[in-house]
Write a structure and sequence with these properties.
six-stranded mixed sheet
């Protein structure tokens, strides 16, 4: 059974940066396209960024140019570098296989103060 553990969230001022990590156990991530998702209060979970098994990346329009997804297959971990954070980025952030088909982790809270 795959387990995903997200970390790196916190409280940051608008314009600041955070780097999120997602470590996996029970599955080798190198063969999978992975995604980052977020869920703000009262809203549905949404796609934020994706990183393919070969390292290619895609982004939601709302974060393009500010967020960067990456991966370290040796550490079985994916990352999300978030720069120029805005209040509207406040949410719980999750990683998952790109289709969102694995069990969800607990997520990591990102709060951006304006």
């Amino acid at each position: 059974q795959v387990q995903l553990v997200e970390s790196g969230g916190g409280l940051v001022q608008a314009g600041g940066s955070l780097r999120l990590s997602c470590a996996a156990s029970g599955r080798t991530l190198s063969s999978y396209n992975m995604g980052w998702f977020r869920q703000a209060p009262g809203k549905e979970r949404e796609f934020v960024a994706g990183i393919s098994w070969s390292g290619g990346s895609t982004y939601a329009d709302s974060v393009k140019g500010r967020f960067t997804a990456s991966r370290d297959n040796a550490k079985n971990t994916v990352y999300l570098q978030m720069n120029s954070l805005k209040a509207e980025d406040t949410a719980v952030y999750y990683c998952n296989q790109a289709g969102g088909t694995w069990p969800w982790g607990q997520g990591t809270q990102v709060t951006v103060s304006s």
